[in-house]
Amino acid sequence: MTTDAHPAAPDTTSDGAADGAAPGRCPVVDYDFADPELRASLHARLTRLRAECPVGWSEQYGGFWLLTRYSDVLEAARDHERYTTTQGIMIPPTGASMRVIPAELDPPEHTPYRKLALPYFTARAIAALEPEIRAIVRRCIAAFAADGHTDLVQSVAEVVPPLVIGAALGLDPADCRVIRELAGNFLSSAKVGIDAKIKAARELEDWLEERIAERRERPTGDTLSALINANLNGQPIPPKIALGMVQLMVVAGHETTVHGIGSLLFRVAAEPGLRERLLADPSLLRATVHESLRIDPPIMHMARTAVGDHERDGAELRDGDKVMLHYGAANRDPEKFEHPAEFDIDRPGNQHLAFGTGRHRCIGEHLAVTEMLVVLEEVLATIPDLRIVGERDMTKIRWRGGSNTLGPERLEVTFTPVR
After folding, report:
1. Which of 243, 252, 238 is nearest to 186 (CA)?
2. 242: phi > 0 → left, psi -120 to 50 → alpha, else beta; which?
3. Is residue 72 a contact partner of residue 312, using CB atoms and an 8 Å limit?
4. Are residues 99 and 241 in contact, defined by beta-carbon separation less than 8 angstroms?
5. Per-residue DSSP letters for 289-337?
6. Contact at 8 Å (CB) between 403 and 90?
7. Is the peptide bond before 92 cis (omega within 30 degrees of 0)?
8. 290-301 pLDDT, tens per residue?
9. The pTM is what?
10. Distance between CA atoms of residues 278 and 159, nearest Å
């Protein structure tokens, strides 16, 4: 099957590799990241595509190029002149009525908005927030510590991030359940129809616009008030720009961390000897967080749009083509990481792409890493003998995610009750 915009390609096998394709020529690849049947064998499929067709054309969701090598993803993410974010960063689009800021702006327009938000998410700013993060995590764990069993996805991973991003922005804790529901609907599966996507986006936007309007009428002195009431070049931030900034912070600031925490806790519970090693040497906790982010990135991919016709690895990209930068595949590229499928906390120089790279590197990375570290510290301190219930094989557990996120669906554990 071909499209009018792309020349005929060789036939593909059932899992996406070309039969008899000439070297450097890219076939149409069979890759639908939202297919639940694919998730159990996702990395096996990506491994084969990366080796046999590192730049392939998928006809899903209107068509897009799939980049799976570390070097290609790194270069494209840093090259805003040939790969723009201004036409959207999601495949398929979310249904939002405006661009999210600054993620869907390119330099130089992008720069002042990033500079405006950056001071609130520096390592120093997040360090000041850490005591509140730790208090949130401890209250969360205390709610089930006496039970002797829990689902850590449901009781920790889903609860902590919305409370933390709410605290970071100055939102009422009572709003955090609403944030979780609205953001979850907004980032629902790519299989959801466009009407449902637009409806979910509108519900989230309406709710956020109410919070913005409240703080513009009566500034409260919190981070959210400071951001939306700031001036750029002597002018107030336009309403749509303010909404795009807040939406990005609320959604990206917690939804991805939900999956990051879930995957991290699964690895600690399932990897042989890891829990015991961390209990004996807490200095290894940060390396564990980053290795979890490498091997199980909560954001699997982001999108760009090709600017101008150009060639990459023999593939002819055309102006306006959608391009998927697959962080999940890049983070397991054997050209970059030795034994990439192994969970190795002793891995030197772990330059994973879980937070992206370049000008659009995730502004909330310090917040995400701090949350994951605090959760890991407090879980090991309170329930150190946690034991996983059920499947330990990462290829056999149930995965869930939205349009571009992925994490474990459940993580049932038992432990000695804390009286």
Report:
1. 252
2. alpha
3. yes
4. no
5. HHHHHHHS-SB-EEEEEE-S-EEETTEEE-TT-EEEEEHHHHTT-TTTS
6. yes
7. yes
8. 999 999 999 999
9. 0.91
10. 24
Bridge partners of 413? 150, 388
Query: Which residues contact residue 187 at a Cβ distance below 8 angstroms, ignoring those fewer than 6 apart?
Result: 94, 251, 255, 402, 403, 404, 405
How far is C-alpha 300 from the chain's CA centre? 6
Q: What number of CA atoms fall less than 13 Å from residue 118's CA on the CB side?
A: 12
Q: Which residues pair with 345 in a beta bridge?
A: none
- Chain CA centroid to CA 350, Å: 18
Residue 151 three-state SS:
strand
Burial class, 382, CB count within 10 angstroms (exposed 0-12 / middle 13-18 / buried 19+): middle
Q: Directed axis angle between helix 239-252 and helix 255-270, to 10°?
A: 10
Q: In sequence order, what are the residues at sequence separation of 6 or more whose Cβ sits closer than 8 angstroms to the Cβ of residue 351?
A: 336
CB 350 within 8 A of CB 291: yes
96-137 per-position pLDDT tens digit: 888 899 999 999 999 999 999 999 999 999 999 999 999 999
Give the position of tokens 């397991």. 332
Q: How many residues does the chain have?
A: 419
Tokens coding 164: 């933390």
Helix axes 110-117, 239-252, angle to 10 degrees: 60
Q: What percent of the chain has a predicted confidence (pLDDT) above 90?
A: 70
DSSP-derived secondary structure letter, 233? T
